[in-house]
Amino acid sequence: MNCRRFEKSIALYVEGDLAGRKARRVGEHLEACRECREFAARLEATQSAVKELRGETVEEAALDGIRARVLERLGAMPAVRPAWSWRLASALAAAVLVAGVFWVATDRSAPPLPRPAVVAPPAPQLAVVPTAPRAVTRVAKRRKPAAPKQARPQTQSEPLLVKLETSDPDVVIYWIVEPKGG
Amino acid sequence: MLVAAEFAMDGGDTEVPRLLAQAKSGDLGAFEQILILHQRQVYLTALRLLGRREDAQDAAQEVFLRLHKHLRRFDDSRQFSPWLYRMTVNVCRDLARERLRHAGAATELEMAASALDPLAEAGLAERKRLVGAALARLPEKERAAIVLRDIEGLTTREVARILGSAEVTVRSQISSARRKMKTILERFLGGRR
């Protein structure tokens, strides 16, 4: 009898993977065939060796290492977000975009810049010589071309020119004082 | 410290759905609990499929990183453990192919087998190494089938679902793998049992 065709089924039969008519057929054959009974016995022996791996032990350190590395990697990654948070984030992004477009499109005026602080020169040792307003105006126009527009206050009264004479006769400082308000 | 392996399908399953829901909401602590519950299963399966502890550790790490990445895809109405097994098998398959491209075929287990003194009585630890060596010689799909069926103790139907194959195909792979394991192990252990 050619038993080769039974070996496939015996490999399933020994572990209870056959049922019904197929299992009965193999069982009957094994009762009748000594060669196949030996084959089945040897297969059961090697299967026992395979299943010994079920009781395998694991070094706890190996598991700790896996866990530590996974958590370390996840710590550097963004957390899993629930689906609703993505929808919320999208809505917020859209709102910011709309607000930005509106802001750009709106005619807006620049806020007034703060008035620059006036730092007074060390006056005590200098002589202060007031001069006539007419002369002041002419000097002021020549001396202040670079002043920023926003910094220039809107004056309604005449500015006061202060002439500062230093110890060096070649150095004379003109200081234009504009009244506040207006 | 050595800890005995547990092979219960979906061990701690009453807790897992709650932990999964929390982990999906971004709770890293809940994800860590899932990892602790399943790391032994993932690591040991990877070890049997790959044969080397270093590779098994790399695979287990990759499995849990993928799990975290794809957690939201998990259908809560299904069992978690088979899904994790499938992920483990896929990661091991990818890793084995990558290793094969970059290294020679000789594995640690094959070297252990070749160094066996044929006159010595094989002890339990040695038998385990030899079984590992024999597993390493099986074709990839047959190895996955026999590991899940005979070592992890899953049913043929569960194995088929995990591997994405028909039950009849898996049955054939298991039968072939058992006969090949017999041939290889008898060569290693013959006359000493």
Report on the architecture of this protein.
The complex is a heterodimer of chains A (182) and B (193). Chain A has 182 residues and is mainly α. Chain A has helices at 4-13, 20-32, 34-51, 60-75, 83-105, 133-143, and strands spanning 57-59, 127-130, 160-165, 172-177. A three-stranded antiparallel beta sheet of chain A has the order 2-3-4, covered by helices on one side. In chain A, strand 3 (160-165) and strand 4 (172-177) form a beta hairpin. In chain A, helix 1 (4-13) crosses helix 2, helix 1 (4-13) crosses helix 3 (34-51) and helix 2 packs across helix 3 (34-51). The longest helix of chain A is centred in the middle third of the chain and has 23 residues, at 83-105. Chain A is rod-shaped, with a radius of gyration of 50 Å. Chain A starts with a helix and ends in a 5-residue tail after the last strand. In chain A, 12% of the residues are buried. Mean pLDDT of chain A is 72; it is low at 133-141. The longest helix of chain B is centred in the N-terminal third of the chain and has 23 residues, at 28-50. Mean pLDDT of chain B is 82; it is low at 1-11 and 105-120. With 193 residues, chain B is mainly alpha-helical. Chains A and B meet through helix 1, helix 3, strand 1 and helix 4 of A and strand 1, helix 2, helix 3, helix 6 and helix 7 of B. Strand 1 of chain A pairs antiparallel with strand 1 (2-4) of chain B, so a sheet runs across the interface.
